Amino acid sequence: MRFNLSWLAALLLAGSFIYSAIQVFRVSRMPGAGYKDNVIRVIHWQLEPGYREGLQWAIDEYNNLPHVKEAGIRVEQQGVTQKVYGQFMNIHMIGGTGPDIAQNGTTRLIRGNAIARFYAPLSDYVTEPNPYNSPEFLPEGLDPELAEMLATSAWSETLIDGMKGGYEEKLNDFYSIPVSTPGDVRLFYNMKLASEAKAVALDALAMQPHPEWLRLSLRENGAESGFIPESPKLVEWLNSGSPPETLGQLLLLCEAILQISTQPGREGLVPIAASSFSNNDVGNALYRHIFMLTFGHELDLNDDNKVDSLEIVHNWQQGRWGFESTDAIRKSIELMQLMTRYYPPGFLGLDREQSQRRFVQGNAMIVSTGGWDAKSIFEAVNNLGDEQTFEIAVTREPLGGEGEIYAEYLTDRPSEAEFEAGVPLSLNKQSPHPEEALDFLRFLTSIRVNEELNRRAGWLPVTIGAEAVEELRPFSPEMEGLPPKLEMNLRNQDLLAQIRNTTSGSLKLVLSGGITYEEFIERCQAAFSDPRLGADRQWFEEWQQKNDHTFGHDQSLNVESVRQYLLNDDSAQRRRLSRLYSSITGDQGYWVRELWRQYHPDEPFPSK
After folding, report:
1. DSSP per-residue letters across 37-103
2. pLDDT at position 19, please?
3. Which of 120, 249, 307, 515 lies at a 20 to 30 A Cα distance from 63?
4. Per-residue confidence band for 130, with pLDDT thresholds at 50, 70 and 90
């Protein structure tokens, strides 16, 4: 009798199923799996050095509180890498084994109106004072007015962003509590290398004639080439101990570092430690935004200081901007291409850790990253030997100086006034310990605990009055500048994937030299012009999204009405009124169709 291989495949499949079932059962019995009596689980993806330790300190402090011990409650944390966090949360929230408290984000399943499916609304709680800011919990020596405000104000008002980082505009409710903020992207300078580069530039300025690299760097008599004009102000800065104050100064130092890298034993030295991690790319991460802000007011159709995805495609169709016709776009790509000259060869094949390692080891003058990496960078440099350690300066990206390259575009930075606090922690609707979990979130955002948690984590605190460590103060939000949402952002997540991915991918290719700028224009225009997945389709998607939002508010209104009138839920009345306002003001996408009719009177509205 001949053996049928199909039976072998079936046996292997059955064996795998049995083994998996046993493993699932075994894991489900392990500590931390599923819900456990008197255990509150907190899950997040903040695996940066120091954050878990800071959070664990806060957890230990909370677990040792007398009333928590008396209740037999214990809080535990679990860190999950961001790469699998979305999938992890999807599985556990649907399966009913989700954590009591979870960091909100990174999963497409739990976003938009679906947040209300899994997480509890918190507006009824954030309007009450935080009991852990009452006088007996406040640190000694606190300013009396600040102490009074913290003890009596609504919980949301005790956070520096008014708890905006936990508010969901589409649902008109708070669905998470932010506990930390990492700070935005800044430039880290190795001031030992910067001083060395300044010395090289000063020596070159003293030579007559100037070396070729310096002649190409200087901008004389209004010439289009070069970065910066030679002037007494330049010499004064080169003799100072300050980091670059203008873009021209930054580029001049980068050119000087390139000269130093040709010396024996300095072959691995580069001006900027870039990598595939977007925030390490100085030109793309920092300067592109400024260029794209310069013409945002021209595209803002409804004067809300924001350029949304529909305004991007509509203004493109009307010829108000174009990849070929808008100088700011061309100039921004010129600068980004210039910046790649100062990056390591093959930087797109490097990762974030390699970039930081290069900087810490003294093989790069600059690294660009956010406050979330500050603690690890400072600690790594401080742990170097006395001969290898160096001073670090942290600044925002310098703007254009008088007579410098691109000065007419780099006049102001995006304001950080509308920043939102980070690490938003949400309360699982299915948690068997909602009151206890909420109590822990209050504890985390009390001034004493929030200050110490973030001091240990190396992040910025979110509670008003909490002090940041000295090294992190450069990451505090700067209020002055242009409205950041006026940026003509082709990475806008509401843009169709076809448009967003094509422009993003083509930009990487043109920066790496894979295609020319003309080919970049051709690819991007083709994406916008695509009859099925281009600009016209964006209109339909925009209309459908607004229609869905209105429908979602109507559904929520019905739910809150049932809770108020049939279940006698007094707290539902406020939520019902909020939903009613959203339902009345929602236009079901009428404005989108009206705008189309106005500009395309002879064309039918795009359909799916």
Report:
1. TTEEEEEE---STTHHHHHHHHHHHHHTSHHHHHHT-EEEEEE--HHHHHHHHHHHHHHT---SEEE
2. 66
3. 120
4. very high
> Does the pLDDT at position 361 exceed 70?
yes
Please give the pLDDT value at position 34.
45
pLDDT mean over 86-101? 82
Q: Are 388 and 362 in contact (CB under 8 A)?
A: yes
How many residues appear in the chain?
A: 608
Query: 28: closest CA among 104, 84, 92?
Result: 92
Do 192 and 165 lie in a common domain? no
Query: Rounded to an integer, what is the distance from CA 355 to the centroid of its chain?
Result: 19
pTM (global) more than 0.70:
yes
Beta bridge partners of 75: 40
Rounded to an integer, what is the distance from CA 77 to the centroid of its chain? Answer: 23
- What range defines the domain where residue 230 resides? 186-307+319-395
Please give the angle made by the CA atoms of 594, 595 and 601, to the nearest 5 degrees.
Answer: 80
* Segments of 191-277 assigned E as strands: 270-272
State the number of CA atoms in the 13 A half-sphere of 83 facing the CB. Answer: 0
CA 448 from chain centre, in angstroms, equals 26
- H-helix segments, 349-425: 352-360, 374-382
In a domain, 414, yes or no: no
Per the domain annotation, does 148 fall within a domain? yes
Please give the Cα distance from 314 to 600 (Å, whole number).
11
Strand order across the beta sheet in which 101-103 lies: 74-79, 39-44, 101-103, 422-427, 177-180
Decide which of 361, 395, 429 is a domain's last residue.
395
Residue with tokens 């046996």, as numbered in its chain: 11
Task: Return phi, psi of residue 607, to 5°.
Answer: -120, 165
Residue 292 or residue 114, greater confidence: 292
DSSP 368: E
**444-487 pLDDT tens trace:** 999 999 999 999 988 889 999 998 888 888 888 888 888 888 88
What's the number of domains the chain is made of?
3
Same-domain check for residues 177 and 194: no
- Tell me, yes or no, whether 171 and 302 share the same domain: no
CATH at 231: 3.40.190
- d(C-alpha 562, C-alpha 369), whole Å: 49
In a domain, 290, yes or no: yes
Residues 107 and 152 in one domain: yes
The H or E element that residue 207 is part of is none
Three-state DSSP class for 395? strand
Say whether both 338 and 213 belong to one domain: yes
pLDDT of residue 129: 93
In this prediction, residue 21 carries a pLDDT of 57
Do 145 and 71 reside in the same domain of the chain?
A: yes
Same-domain pairing of 167 and 146? yes
Helix, strand, coil percentages, rounded to 5, for the chain = 50, 10, 40
- Structural domain contains residue 13: no
DSSP-assigned letter for residue 287? I
- As a whole number of angstroms, the distance between CA 537 and CA 268 comes to 48
| Token couple for 591 | 């404005």
- 203 and 176 co-located in one domain: no
